[in-house]
Amino acid sequence: MSSSLNNLIAAWSFYFGAVIASFLNVVIWRVPRGESVVRPPSHCPKCDAPIKWYQNLPIVSYLWLRGKCAKCHAPISPRYLLVEILGGVLFWGAWLKFGLDAPILWVWFSLMIVGSFIDFDHHLLPDFVTIGGMAYGLVLSVAIPLIAGVSPWAGLGWSLVGAASGLGIMWLIRFLGGRAFKREAMGMGDVLLMGAVGSMTGWPGVLFALVVSSFLGSLGGLAAMAVSRKWGRNFEIPYGPYICLANLIYIFFPETMDWYLRLFR
Ligand SMILES: [Zn+2]
After folding, report:
1. Which of 71, 96, 115, 241 has its CA 20 to 30 A from that of 85?
2. What is the pTM of this model?
3. Are 117 and 87 in contact (CB under 8 A)?
4. Are residue 205 and residue 85 in the same domain, yes or no?
Protein backbone atom coordinates (compact mmCIF):
# COMPACT_ATOMS: atom_id res chain seq x y z
CA MET A 1 0.00 0.00 0.00
CA SER A 2 1.36 3.43 -0.90
CA SER A 3 2.48 5.49 2.06
CA SER A 4 0.16 8.41 1.30
CA LEU A 5 -2.86 6.08 1.22
CA ASN A 6 -1.61 4.49 4.42
CA ASN A 7 -1.38 7.93 6.09
CA LEU A 8 -4.84 8.83 4.85
CA ILE A 9 -6.37 5.67 6.35
CA ALA A 10 -4.41 6.22 9.57
CA ALA A 11 -5.83 9.75 9.90
CA TRP A 12 -9.31 8.50 9.04
CA SER A 13 -8.96 5.71 11.67
CA PHE A 14 -8.23 8.32 14.33
CA TYR A 15 -11.22 10.42 13.32
CA PHE A 16 -13.50 7.38 13.04
CA GLY A 17 -12.38 6.21 16.51
CA ALA A 18 -13.22 9.64 17.94
CA VAL A 19 -16.67 9.58 16.26
CA ILE A 20 -17.39 6.09 17.66
CA ALA A 21 -16.12 7.16 21.11
CA SER A 22 -18.42 10.17 21.00
CA PHE A 23 -21.29 7.67 20.69
CA LEU A 24 -19.71 5.47 23.41
CA ASN A 25 -19.89 8.52 25.74
CA VAL A 26 -23.67 8.42 25.24
CA VAL A 27 -23.75 4.67 25.92
CA ILE A 28 -21.64 5.08 29.08
CA TRP A 29 -24.00 7.74 30.44
CA ARG A 30 -27.37 6.34 29.37
CA VAL A 31 -27.23 2.53 29.49
CA PRO A 32 -26.66 2.19 33.28
CA ARG A 33 -29.56 4.65 33.76
CA GLY A 34 -31.85 2.50 31.63
CA GLU A 35 -32.19 5.20 28.95
CA SER A 36 -32.31 4.72 25.20
CA VAL A 37 -29.08 5.46 23.36
CA VAL A 38 -30.95 6.87 20.32
CA ARG A 39 -33.72 8.98 21.80
CA PRO A 40 -33.80 11.76 22.76
CA PRO A 41 -30.95 13.22 20.68
CA SER A 42 -27.99 14.69 22.59
CA HIS A 43 -28.91 17.63 24.78
CA CYS A 44 -27.26 19.69 27.50
CA PRO A 45 -27.93 17.99 30.87
CA LYS A 46 -28.27 21.42 32.50
CA CYS A 47 -30.46 23.52 30.20
CA ASP A 48 -31.77 20.75 27.88
CA ALA A 49 -30.71 22.71 24.79
CA PRO A 50 -30.36 20.26 21.90
CA ILE A 51 -26.77 19.88 20.71
CA LYS A 52 -26.56 20.69 17.02
CA TRP A 53 -24.51 18.45 14.75
CA TYR A 54 -21.73 21.04 14.35
CA GLN A 55 -21.51 21.34 18.14
CA ASN A 56 -21.20 17.57 18.38
CA LEU A 57 -18.09 16.98 16.26
CA PRO A 58 -15.72 14.83 18.27
CA ILE A 59 -12.80 16.62 19.96
CA VAL A 60 -13.09 19.73 17.73
CA SER A 61 -16.41 20.92 19.20
CA TYR A 62 -15.28 20.41 22.78
CA LEU A 63 -12.19 22.54 22.19
CA TRP A 64 -14.11 25.11 20.12
CA LEU A 65 -16.77 25.55 22.85
CA ARG A 66 -13.99 25.44 25.51
CA GLY A 67 -15.78 22.58 27.31
CA LYS A 68 -19.00 24.54 27.89
CA CYS A 69 -22.60 24.29 26.68
CA ALA A 70 -23.07 26.73 23.76
CA LYS A 71 -26.30 28.05 25.29
CA CYS A 72 -26.05 28.10 29.10
CA HIS A 73 -22.25 27.81 29.36
CA ALA A 74 -22.53 25.00 31.93
CA PRO A 75 -19.19 23.17 32.02
CA ILE A 76 -19.07 19.81 30.24
CA SER A 77 -16.89 17.13 31.85
CA PRO A 78 -13.44 16.90 30.23
CA ARG A 79 -13.97 13.15 30.34
CA TYR A 80 -16.04 13.42 27.14
CA LEU A 81 -12.98 14.83 25.42
CA LEU A 82 -10.70 12.24 27.03
CA VAL A 83 -12.86 9.31 25.86
CA GLU A 84 -12.98 10.73 22.31
CA ILE A 85 -9.20 11.09 22.20
CA LEU A 86 -8.82 7.60 23.67
CA GLY A 87 -11.09 6.14 20.97
CA GLY A 88 -9.14 7.98 18.27
CA VAL A 89 -5.74 6.85 19.56
CA LEU A 90 -6.80 3.21 19.97
CA PHE A 91 -8.41 2.97 16.51
CA TRP A 92 -5.39 4.69 14.97
CA GLY A 93 -2.95 2.44 16.85
CA ALA A 94 -4.85 -0.68 15.76
CA TRP A 95 -4.55 0.41 12.11
CA LEU A 96 -0.79 1.03 12.47
CA LYS A 97 -0.18 -2.33 14.12
CA PHE A 98 -2.75 -4.64 12.55
CA GLY A 99 -3.62 -3.01 9.22
CA LEU A 100 -6.68 -4.53 7.60
CA ASP A 101 -7.41 -6.62 10.72
CA ALA A 102 -7.87 -3.42 12.76
CA PRO A 103 -11.70 -3.28 12.49
CA ILE A 104 -11.88 -6.63 14.35
CA LEU A 105 -10.18 -4.97 17.29
CA TRP A 106 -12.15 -1.73 17.04
CA VAL A 107 -15.23 -3.64 18.21
CA TRP A 108 -13.42 -5.16 21.18
CA PHE A 109 -11.84 -1.80 22.09
CA SER A 110 -15.27 -0.15 22.02
CA LEU A 111 -16.65 -2.78 24.39
CA MET A 112 -13.69 -2.29 26.73
CA ILE A 113 -14.05 1.52 26.73
CA VAL A 114 -17.76 1.25 27.60
CA GLY A 115 -17.13 -1.42 30.26
CA SER A 116 -14.25 0.47 31.89
CA PHE A 117 -16.04 3.78 32.29
CA ILE A 118 -19.34 2.24 33.41
CA ASP A 119 -17.34 0.24 35.97
CA PHE A 120 -15.61 3.44 37.15
CA ASP A 121 -18.95 5.21 37.60
CA HIS A 122 -21.22 2.44 38.86
CA HIS A 123 -18.97 -0.46 39.92
CA LEU A 124 -20.66 -2.80 37.48
CA LEU A 125 -19.84 -4.36 34.14
CA PRO A 126 -22.79 -4.75 31.74
CA ASP A 127 -23.40 -8.24 30.29
CA PHE A 128 -23.24 -6.94 26.72
CA VAL A 129 -19.60 -6.04 27.38
CA THR A 130 -18.54 -9.21 29.23
CA ILE A 131 -20.74 -11.98 27.81
CA GLY A 132 -20.95 -10.05 24.52
CA GLY A 133 -17.15 -9.85 24.34
CA MET A 134 -16.85 -13.56 25.05
CA ALA A 135 -19.38 -14.40 22.31
CA TYR A 136 -17.63 -12.03 19.90
CA GLY A 137 -14.26 -13.73 20.48
CA LEU A 138 -15.77 -17.18 19.90
CA VAL A 139 -17.54 -16.12 16.71
CA LEU A 140 -14.31 -14.53 15.39
CA SER A 141 -12.30 -17.66 16.21
CA VAL A 142 -14.59 -19.61 13.85
CA ALA A 143 -15.23 -16.90 11.23
CA ILE A 144 -11.61 -15.86 10.62
CA PRO A 145 -10.32 -19.40 9.84
CA LEU A 146 -13.37 -19.99 7.62
CA ILE A 147 -12.64 -16.80 5.65
CA ALA A 148 -8.96 -17.77 5.43
CA GLY A 149 -10.00 -21.22 4.17
CA VAL A 150 -8.54 -23.24 7.04
CA SER A 151 -10.25 -25.48 9.58
CA PRO A 152 -12.07 -23.42 12.22
CA TRP A 153 -11.63 -26.07 14.92
CA ALA A 154 -8.17 -24.97 16.05
CA GLY A 155 -9.33 -21.36 16.34
CA LEU A 156 -12.44 -22.33 18.25
CA GLY A 157 -10.43 -24.55 20.60
CA TRP A 158 -7.94 -21.76 21.27
CA SER A 159 -10.72 -19.28 22.03
CA LEU A 160 -12.64 -21.75 24.23
CA VAL A 161 -9.52 -22.66 26.23
CA GLY A 162 -8.80 -18.93 26.63
CA ALA A 163 -12.34 -18.17 27.85
CA ALA A 164 -12.36 -21.18 30.18
CA SER A 165 -8.97 -20.27 31.69
CA GLY A 166 -10.09 -16.68 32.28
CA LEU A 167 -13.40 -17.72 33.85
CA GLY A 168 -11.83 -20.55 35.86
CA ILE A 169 -8.93 -18.60 37.37
CA MET A 170 -11.04 -15.56 38.24
CA TRP A 171 -13.84 -17.69 39.67
CA LEU A 172 -11.30 -19.47 41.86
CA ILE A 173 -9.83 -16.15 43.09
CA ARG A 174 -13.35 -14.89 43.78
CA PHE A 175 -14.23 -18.07 45.66
CA LEU A 176 -11.03 -18.23 47.74
CA GLY A 177 -11.01 -14.46 48.33
CA GLY A 178 -14.62 -14.59 49.50
CA ARG A 179 -13.72 -17.32 51.99
CA ALA A 180 -10.57 -15.59 53.26
CA PHE A 181 -12.05 -12.10 53.68
CA LYS A 182 -15.66 -13.13 54.39
CA ARG A 183 -16.89 -10.66 51.84
CA GLU A 184 -17.10 -10.41 48.08
CA ALA A 185 -13.52 -10.10 46.87
CA MET A 186 -14.43 -9.55 43.26
CA GLY A 187 -17.60 -9.05 41.27
CA MET A 188 -19.02 -11.66 38.91
CA GLY A 189 -18.59 -9.03 36.15
CA ASP A 190 -14.79 -9.21 36.58
CA VAL A 191 -14.91 -13.01 36.22
CA LEU A 192 -16.94 -12.72 33.00
CA LEU A 193 -14.71 -9.92 31.69
CA MET A 194 -11.64 -12.13 32.08
CA GLY A 195 -13.54 -14.80 30.14
CA ALA A 196 -13.92 -12.27 27.32
CA VAL A 197 -10.20 -11.41 27.52
CA GLY A 198 -9.45 -15.13 27.15
CA SER A 199 -11.85 -15.59 24.28
CA MET A 200 -10.24 -12.63 22.44
CA THR A 201 -6.54 -13.08 23.28
CA GLY A 202 -6.24 -16.71 24.49
CA TRP A 203 -4.76 -18.04 27.72
CA PRO A 204 -1.52 -15.99 27.36
CA GLY A 205 -3.71 -12.85 27.33
CA VAL A 206 -5.40 -14.06 30.52
CA LEU A 207 -2.08 -14.75 32.24
CA PHE A 208 -0.79 -11.31 31.26
CA ALA A 209 -4.00 -9.54 32.31
CA LEU A 210 -4.01 -11.34 35.65
CA VAL A 211 -0.50 -10.24 36.63
CA VAL A 212 -0.50 -6.76 35.10
CA SER A 213 -4.04 -5.79 36.20
CA SER A 214 -3.38 -6.72 39.83
CA PHE A 215 -0.23 -4.60 39.74
CA LEU A 216 -1.93 -1.64 38.02
CA GLY A 217 -5.02 -2.07 40.22
CA SER A 218 -2.91 -1.82 43.40
CA LEU A 219 -1.27 1.36 42.13
CA GLY A 220 -4.67 2.75 41.08
CA GLY A 221 -6.19 1.81 44.45
CA LEU A 222 -3.41 3.53 46.38
CA ALA A 223 -3.73 6.62 44.19
CA ALA A 224 -7.52 6.69 44.71
CA MET A 225 -7.09 6.33 48.48
CA ALA A 226 -4.50 9.11 48.52
CA VAL A 227 -6.76 11.44 46.55
CA SER A 228 -9.89 10.73 48.63
CA ARG A 229 -7.90 10.47 51.91
CA LYS A 230 -9.96 7.41 52.83
CA TRP A 231 -7.69 4.58 53.90
CA GLY A 232 -8.69 1.08 54.76
CA ARG A 233 -9.48 -2.35 53.43
CA ASN A 234 -13.11 -1.58 52.79
CA PHE A 235 -12.07 0.81 50.06
CA GLU A 236 -13.58 -0.52 46.85
CA ILE A 237 -11.92 0.01 43.51
CA PRO A 238 -13.39 -1.09 40.20
CA TYR A 239 -11.20 -3.85 38.79
CA GLY A 240 -12.59 -3.93 35.24
CA PRO A 241 -10.67 -0.88 33.94
CA TYR A 242 -7.36 -2.43 35.00
CA ILE A 243 -8.18 -5.73 33.28
CA CYS A 244 -8.97 -3.76 30.10
CA LEU A 245 -5.82 -1.64 30.39
CA ALA A 246 -3.70 -4.77 30.85
CA ASN A 247 -5.35 -6.40 27.82
CA LEU A 248 -4.64 -3.29 25.72
CA ILE A 249 -0.97 -3.40 26.72
CA TYR A 250 -0.89 -7.08 25.76
CA ILE A 251 -2.54 -6.47 22.38
CA PHE A 252 -0.22 -3.62 21.43
CA PHE A 253 2.97 -4.80 23.13
CA PRO A 254 2.86 -8.61 23.47
CA GLU A 255 6.67 -8.54 23.82
CA THR A 256 6.08 -7.15 27.33
CA MET A 257 5.12 -10.72 28.20
CA ASP A 258 8.50 -12.09 27.02
CA TRP A 259 10.27 -9.49 29.09
CA TYR A 260 8.21 -10.44 32.12
CA LEU A 261 8.78 -14.18 31.69
CA ARG A 262 12.53 -13.65 31.26
CA LEU A 263 12.65 -12.35 34.84
CA PHE A 264 11.90 -15.89 35.98
CA ARG A 265 14.42 -17.73 33.84
ZN1 LIG B 1 -26.76 24.09 28.51
Report:
1. 71
2. 0.93
3. no
4. no
pLDDT score recorded for residue 42: 85
Pick from 101, 133, 157: which residue ends a domain? 101
CA dihedral 213, 218, 222, 227 (to 10 degrees): 20
79 burial level (CB within 10 Å; 0-12, 13-18, 19+): middle
Q: How many domains does the chain have?
A: 2
Domain that holds residue 33: 1-101
How many A from CA of 59 to the centre of ligand 1?
Answer: 18
Verify that 149 and 63 share a domain, yes or no.
Answer: no
pLDDT of residue 227: 85
Residues of the chain with pLDDT under 70: 231-235, 260-261, 264-265
Cα 183 to middle of ligand 1, angstroms? 43
**Cα(122) to centroid of ligand 1, in Å?**
25
Distance 67 CA to ligand 1 centre (A): 11
Residues 152, 228, single domain; the answer is: yes
